Amino acid sequence: MNRPMLIPDGVLTHVDYTCKRRYTADVVVVGTGAGGAAAGAELAEAGHDVLFVEEGSYIPQSSFNPHLEHSMPRLYRDTGTTMIFGNPTIPYVEGRAVGGSTTINGGMCWRPPTRVMDDWARETGDTSLGAEGMDWYFSRVEERINAKPQPSYSIGPDNRVMSRGARKLGWEYRENHRNQDQCVGTNNCGFGCPTGAKQSTLLSYMPRAMGAGAQCLTEIRVERLLIEGGRCVGVAGRTYDPRTRRPSHEVEVRGRAVVIACGAIQTPYLLLRHRVARRSRQLGKNLLLHPNVKITGLFPFDIGGWAGVSQGGQVREFHEEGIVLAENFIPPGAMGTHLPHHGSRAWELMTRYKQMVVGGALVEDSTSGRVLRGPFGMPLPWYQVTKGDHARFKKGARLLSELFFSVGADAVLLPFSNAHLARSMAEVDRILLGQTRRKWLELFTVHLMGTARMGAREDRSVIDLDGCIWDLPGCYVADASVFPTAIGVNPQVTIMAMATRIGLRLAETLQGEHRAAVA
Is beta strand 215-217 parallel, antiparallel or unpaired with respect to 50-53? Predict the structure, then answer.
């Protein structure tokens, strides 16, 4: 069989495992998203032999496009149909390709509030996890992914609607820093940046790692850890054909250390098979979502929200209440699937696509859920929205509605399954009074965190302050699951900063072991 075209040297695909199915390295890194790529690159550049293992395929930037039928199966886990159970159920998405979710995210680069980082320092007793102690890591990440303000020429008209509405109402509006270099605003962030401007790990950390000698084994789903003598010495999984999803050969990858970076759903799912972190029983718990409600403003004039970058800024007026308002325009195929109607009514709404502005109200978690091992080889995430958060979601929906009406909207589409359309604030308020049941709330999330929390005590956390699982030497975690608490902002740079910290500490540990062995 021939290798697919455009696959760079050092990247292996399912056709390469026909003959060779055993691999070794200094460090095995499972996952190539924000956490895995950052940790792996630091380890490779420190001189260690690194092998990445990625469930998804290598999708070249030149093939990214806005067509759902082409992009979703290649870039999203289960074509974006994954769900968190509870009241209400909450759809979520994960990237599944080299670059992970950084390939499909909006590129926001927000550091956590100082209060959050200082809470981490107090909770763990480690001042290096505070805002001051983590500043060096954040700065290192921001330099490597080119995090900076968006060029004014690529900020779209829908962003200007949001900022104008915020100013009119006297609300604080802050422009995003994004990991981009000369972004022209194609508004295709969710399906891969076709110009290569967005500095996802596919284009930033992974090339650094590969340039330092790392290799990447793609199209392998890791199913179990290899544990010998009480120590993690590798992983085993099955390769699969990316078109048919049929598994075939078992592949083993062994190393002196293993870094798990599969995300806040898949990491605990894998680790729960091995009953680790037994003293705390925290593995899989502390699932944080930063969920959001979507409100669409319909205007009596053309806006053309596709003509510019998605999410140029955020309304931060209500951040201390745990509410952030943001714009997030999406390509027409995705918009059609998210409309609350079908048939002729959906078509009628889609004819107004160029008159739409889509906003979201993100709510900082006041509770947490958990991840269990479910049937059919699938994780089972569970999360219950509290009454207090239900009230905040309703407030967020009202605030966005008020913003849209203040700048000329003639209607808004609301996130309630029993009442979608309002043509005035009076109608919005009447609908909100009737929202007494959480199951009517339509939520969504892409910010999954917290299921393998870091801590200073084995009876209260899953990993120690170096990122190692307390009762499984050799096994580290470096993704969003390590967060001790909710952060209330887009998590990308926090994941990378924590993974950088863990990767550099592991590099020092391995170097120390090598020096001791030589001596």
Answer: parallel
Following DSSP, what letter does each residue of 247-259 receive, concatenated?
EEEEEEEEEEEEE
Secondary structure of residue 304 in the 3-state scheme: coil
For residue 150, with 0-12 CB atoms within 10 Å meaning exposed, 13-18 middle and 19 or more buried, which class applies? buried
Q: Are 136 and 498 in contact (CB under 8 A)?
A: no
Whether 358 contacts 305, CB under 8 Å? yes
**Does the pLDDT value for residue 305 go beyond 80?**
yes
What's the burial of 351, exposed, middle or buried (CB within 10 Å: 0-12/13-18/19+)?
A: exposed
447 is catalytic: yes
User: Pick the catalytic residue: 14, 319, 390, 447?
Assistant: 447
pTM for the full predicted model: 0.96
Q: What is the mean pLDDT of residues 210-231?
A: 97
In sequence order, the 6+-apart residues with CB closer than 8 A to the CB of 379 are 265, 266, 268, 269, 371, 372, 373
Residue 335: enclosing H or E segment and its boundaries?
Answer: helix 332-338
**Domains of the chain, each with CATH number or no CATH:** 11-84+92-111+190-287+448-518 (3.50.50.60), 149-180+292-364+386-440 (3.30.410)
pLDDT in tens, 255-301: 999 999 999 999 999 999 998 999 999 999 999 999 999 999 999 99
CA Rg, the chain, in Å?
A: 23
Q: Which has the closest alpha carbon to 270: 40, 481, 122?
A: 481
Per-residue pLDDT band for 6 (boundaries 50, 70, 90) equals confident
